[in-house]
Amino acid sequence: MTTGDIEFILEVRNLHVAYFSRARVASSAVVDVSFDVRPGEILGVLGESGSGKSTLATCLLRLLPANGEIQQGSILFEGRDLLQATPRELESIRGRRIALINQEPWVALHPTMRVGDQVGEVLAAHEYLDKKSRRERLRQVLEGLFPAETNRISFSYPHQLSGGQRQRVLIAQAIACGPSLVIADEPTASVDSATQREILTVFESLRRGFGVAIILITHNPSLLVGLADRVLVLYAGRVVEIGPTESVLSHSLHPYTQALLRCLPPPLCGANVVNRKTKLPVIAGDAPKLNTLSLGCRFEPRCEDRFEPCRTREPLPVSPADEHVVSCFKFGG
Q: Among 158, 153, 63, which Cα is nearest to 109's?
């Protein structure tokens, strides 16, 4: 089956994930999450730290830690339910059909191995290539990401590279086997703003040149502008809003999404230059503890627009605008 034969490369339905303490006390990290990803689409996943973004990324590949458990739902990838896949089937999918880019290169890269060897290991694990073909494939991958210094990067150790170069090495490992889906977990969190834009340009090139679908996880909405096709907003493990990027970021509906966007500085140009001493607004209160959640809307204690129904039950998703879905009682949920 090719990606051209299917409408959605990934279909997640009613996903529930919990972490358990030693006393078997459950903390619900992902609750009733459903979304789709089309072939060649870039889906942005947006939320604060602790919103469930990284848990979602790891459970899609069934890489949760030992105390994590997928309690319910389905994860259909290219028509196959990954929750029913055997360990051997998962080995053939991870790194080859679905690739995960870690947010911290220092953790993901081996400090005493040259870059070329580390990318080559991925090829050796998933592709049946002779040494000559493997070297040629390695050269092609690194040349695409480091066109001006392919050989130097290949023979370098991670500590000899800049933060942006190390992040590109992780991308090289991710795309070496030609996956159809890449999950990038905060890939620009540890680099400067100029390098951020370079890395995002690489993602756009992957989508445009190879039709790779990308789930881009971030806490920064501005990174998704002009790149992501759609944005999914997570709060305390629940999807509170999802829709086309322009609609979600320019005409956000959920109070949480609106609060996130108010915390961003205005464009630093012309009349919008912000005084250096100006304090940016913050979202009042703290994110809820996942093992002490009430029956109502999870954002209710911090929401300026809350009213009585918000305290007693979760709002259902509704679609006030075309392809724009929100879970909020202001819209009849």
A: 158
Residue owning tokens 């992501």: 228
Cα–Cα–Cα angle for 198, 203, 204, nearest 5°?
95
Q: Are 51 and 287 in contact (CB under 8 A)?
A: yes
Smallest CA-to-CA distance from 215 within 44, 70, 63 is with 44
313 φψ region: left (φ > 0), alpha (ψ -120 to 50), beta (else): beta
CA dist., res. 145 & res. 137, Å (int)? 13
pLDDT higher than 60, residue 274: no
**Residues 141-172 pLDDT 10s:** 999 999 999 999 999 999 999 988 999 999 99
The mean per-residue pLDDT over the stretch 302-329 comes to: 91
Domains of the chain are 3-97+179-265+279-331 (3.40.50.300)
Q: How far is CA 196 from the centre of its chain?
A: 15
Q: How far is CA 59 from the centre of its chain?
A: 12
pLDDT of res. 197: 87
* pLDDT (0 to 100) of residue 267: 55
